[in-house]
Design a protein that fits this description.
Blueprint (H helix, E strand, L loop, with lengths): L1 H17 L6 H8 L2 H16 L3 H31 L5 H25 L2 H32 L1
Length: 149
C-alpha cells in the first residue's frame, strides 16, 4: 500500500513538472488586442502616470499611433528578411540604426513640446525604465536561446 501511495505522489509530481510553462503570458495577451486597442491602452496608461489633459491626450495619441505604425513596418521588414534568409550589410544596419535614432530624437522633441517640464521628466524616467527592462529581457532571451540550441 505504501508503494502505491509513493508511486502516485511521484507521478503527480512528475506530471506537474512536465507541464509546459507559459513563457510570455503578457505578450500573448497584448497580441490579442487590435492595434487601436493597444494604442488606447498605452494612452490611458500615460494619462494615469503623467496626468495628461484632453489636448495632451489627443497629441500623444497621434504620436503613439505613428510610433506603432513605424514599429509594425519595421517588424514586417525584419520578418521578411528573416524568411528570405538575408542579413543586412553593415551599411544597411548603420542606416537602420541612424534612422531609428533620428526618429527617437524627433519623437522626444515632439513630446517635449506637448508635456510640461514635470511631465516630461517623468516620461523620460518611464522611457529609461522601459529600455532597461527590455535590455534585461533581451539578455535573458539570448541566454535561453543559446542553451536551447
Amino acid at each position: 500500500m505504501k508503494k502505491l501511495i509513493v508511486i502516485a505522489v511521484m507521478l503527480i509530481g512528475l506530471s506537474t513538472f512536465a507541464q509546459k510553462a507559459d513563457k510570455h503570458p503578457r505578450k500573448e495577451n497584448l497580441e490579442q488586442f487590435t492595434p487601436q486597442q493597444r494604442i488606447e491602452l498605452r494612452l490611458k496608461t500615460l494619462t494615469l502616470d503623467l496626468g495628461l489633459n484632453a489636448a495632451q491626450q489627443k497629441e500623444m495619441g497621434k504620436i503613439i499611433t505613428e510610433m506603432d505604425a513605424k514599429r509594425g513596418a519595421f517588424k514586417a521588414e525584419i520578418l521578411a528578411r528573416k524568411e528570405a534568409g538575408t542579413k543586412p550589410t553593415n551599411d544597411e544596419r548603420f542606416a537602420m540604426q541612424t534612422k531609428l535614432l533620428d526618429e527617437k530624437i524627433a519623437t522626444k522633441e515632439r513630446v517635449k513640446k506637448i508635456l510640461d517640464v514635470k511631465q516630461f521628466e517623468k516620461w523620460e524616467q518611464m522611457q529609461s525604465k522601459r529600455l532597461e527592462k527590455n535590455r534585461k529581457n533581451a539578455k535573458r532571451r539570448m541566454g535561453r536561446s543559446s542553451v536551447e540550441k
